[in-house]
């Protein structure tokens, strides 16, 4: 990547961080309209950061395309959840994020083919999550099947993100960022569970979720741009 393109990517990442700070401040002071604006802005900026990497790589679109579409799905999910008032947009948000995790998994599988150990590990992770629900005070309001299905999708995505780790010597920064991003996404959704379905959710829970979630997006978009830098250097 040339200097101008690096500056553009870094500028979008900085603007995303600023938007997340604004989002948390607006949320803390109960400024709902401003919070929606900052949330939408954060989504637009991490999409723009990802687009910088996507447009620069013409040799590996099989990997880049599903990742970038997944990032777009995340932005759509953000908007749906921010505007939800009657439950319908909530479900659309879940579908959007579910689609994003499927697309992330597709991309990860192109670098690290699915193995039996991946399926077993994802199943164990899902089983552990399901059993843990009996020990926490949550009210799912009829949405438990949706939560379990979503958990199965993100569990597999997180396992595939971890399966990339052995390939880190090929593309050190890119693989590490993708792995960390996938794990942070999983943790952020676990925190979000307590905000959405907790019997007495506190504002810091939502703030922690946002910090983890946008950190995940930061890692993912940085990985796309880092991959461009690595392949560019290799060609040089």
How would you characterize this protein structure?
- Helices cover 82% and strands 0% of the residues.
- The chain is an all-alpha fold.
- Mean pLDDT is 88; it is low at 228-236.
Tags for this model:
mainly alpha; disordered C terminus; single chain; 236 residues
Low-confidence stretches: 228-236
Helix content: over 70%
Structural class: mainly alpha
Gap from first CA to last CA:
11 Å
Mean pLDDT: 88
- Give the SSE string: HHHHHHHH
Shape: globular
Q: What is the total tally of β strands?
A: 0
Main beta sheet, described?
Answer: none
Please tally the helical runs, counting DSSP H or I stretches of 4 or more residues: 8
Q: In short, what is this structure?
A:
This protein is mainly alpha-helical. The chain has helices at residues 3-28, 32-56, 61-83, 88-111, 116-132, 144-163, 172-197, 203-235.
Question: How are the secondary structure elements laid out?
Answer:
Blueprint: H1 3-28, H2 32-56, H3 61-83, H4 88-111, H5 116-132, H6 144-163, H7 172-197, H8 203-235
Helix pairs in contact: 1-2, 1-8, 2-3, 2-8, 3-4, 4-6, 5-6, 6-7, 7-8
């Amino acid at each position: 990547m040339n200097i101008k393109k690096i500056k553009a990517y870094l500028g979008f990442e900085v603007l995303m961080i600023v938007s997340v700070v604004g989002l948390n401040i607006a949320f803390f002071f109960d400024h709902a309209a401003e919070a929606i604006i900052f949330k939408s802005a954060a989504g637009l900026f991490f999409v723009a950061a990802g687009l910088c990497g996507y447009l620069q790589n013409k040799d590996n679109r099989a990997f880049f395309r599903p990742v970038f579409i997944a990032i777009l799905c995340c932005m759509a999910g953000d908007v749906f959840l921010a505007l939800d008032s009657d439950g319908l947009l909530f479900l659309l948000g879940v579908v959007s994020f579910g689609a994003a995790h499927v697309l992330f998994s597709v991309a990860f599988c192109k670098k690290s083919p699915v193995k039996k150990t991946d399926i077993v590990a994802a199943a164990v992770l899902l089983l552990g999550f399901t059993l843990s629900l009996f020990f926490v005070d949550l009210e799912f309001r009829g949405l438990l099947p949706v939560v379990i299905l979503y958990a199965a999708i993100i569990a597999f995505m997180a396992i595939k993100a971890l399966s990339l780790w052995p390939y880190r010597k090929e593309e050190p920064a890119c693989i590490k960022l993708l792995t960390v991003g996938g794990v942070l996404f999983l943790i952020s959704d676990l925190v979000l569970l307590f905000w959405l379905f907790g019997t007495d959710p506190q504002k810091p829970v939502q703030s922690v979720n946002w910090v983890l979630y946008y950190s995940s997006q930061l890692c993912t978009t940085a990985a796309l741009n880092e991959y461009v830098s690595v392949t560019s250097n290799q060609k040089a």
